[in-house]
Amino acid sequence: MNRRSRGNASSLRGPSGVAAALAGAALALAMTACGDRGGSHAEAHETRTPSAQDAPHYDPPVRFAPNGRPLLPTTTATGPRDVSDVVLAGRLAYFQDGDGLQAVDVTTGRSSWSARPGAGATVDGRNIRPALASLGGRQYIIGLFPGELPGHGTTPATPVLELLLVDPATGRTAGDDAMPLPAELAEGFNLHQIVGTDGRAVVIGLSGSSPDAVVVADPAAHRIRWTRQKATPVATSDGLVVVIDAVRPSGFFNIEGTYRLQGIDTATAAVRWSTAPSTADTYQAERAGPRLVTLSGGFDETAGLLDITTGKRRFRYPDQEKLYDCRDDDRSVVVCFTTGRVMALDATTAQLLWELPKDGRTSPSVTAAWHGAVYGTTANGPVVLDARTGRDREASPGAAPALVGPYGGVVKQDRSLVFQAAAG
């Protein structure tokens, strides 16, 4: 996903979750019990469409079939508008639409299952990216549904965030809970995002006409742990959420604001570390890897890759005035890039592995990284690089996907999403 998290912007970016020590079975039972309180049960519908068991798959794919097909089945009325709304894992692509959570088998192009929220709230079916994350040691697809519980008599309707937890393979609902929002967060937000989990709770970012806010929700306890305004969550790891703290937000007539990064304990809301405040018109941070966050913009002396647990800089960007995006390959490499420059670093040591342009070679526009491969485009068309060495791995891959899995990649063509099957 290529959404930027900035101190004065409305879009957020979310990471994958972090497993923690909870008894999985006990958590699932507690969540199911909590979901029962809201009203009707969530509904799940499994089509049981056979998968293409012999579909070509590679780890990673470096060539793609020239003729793609629409990612969504023709029977799906609504769906994701952008690649950033989709989660791709194995042969399934997950997304959220007006009806609930959906899973599509990319090898057949057919629906695999659907699950609808049913905790009794009237929900707003927005295209919010679900999260494939771990809670209680079990993997779930987590859907986020803003809405409200109906009022009764003189009691007004209650704004809520409903979290729907679903088994990724079967679509069976494991938890469904509508948690009331504090009054100060009831209005002014039209963008919502799941940023990650701490193994027990789900970290959510809110953005809109009101100042950005972070919500840490605990579905097993049927409650919201804590909230904080003027903070934009960007990453989670090891029991911490990293936020952009707006010390002095930019105003309508003043494009500059003062911001800092902070690491906040997801259990207690205590601030564990903080960078020095920086005055900037653009202050950007996002997840860069399992334990890394990238910070750029604002002429900040701490700009670069920071350790999520300590806030200490692990790598310094050579041109700090530029904005950097990062992708990790879900294995061992983090790729960071800006206009005209691409760098790859070891995800554990943060040591520079390679950079482009160099030795007469140009730098690609990076679209994705996955399992040792970097995907992108140059003036010569799509290209795939080796993530550890930076050498050209495939000069004619047939596509530059934004999402990659063993069975192929997802690209955006005009206003639709297209899946191009792996061919090598």
From TrEMBL:
Transmembrane segments: none
Keywords, comma-separated and alphabetical: Signal
Keyword hit for Signal: yes
Domain Pyrrolo-quinoline quinone repeat: start-end pairs: 165-391
Protein name per the record: PQQ-binding-like beta-propeller repeat protein
Keyword Signal: yes
Taxonomic source organism: Actinoallomurus liliacearum
Domain of life of the native organism: Bacteria
Cited InterPro entries: PQQ_b-propeller_rpt, PQQ_rpt_dom, Quinoprotein_ADH-like_sf, WD40/YVTN_repeat-like_dom_sf
Signal peptide: 1-30
Listed SMART domains: PQQ
Basic and acidic residues: compositionally biased ranges: 38-48
Pfam families: PQQ_2
Residue ranges of the region described as Disordered: 36-80
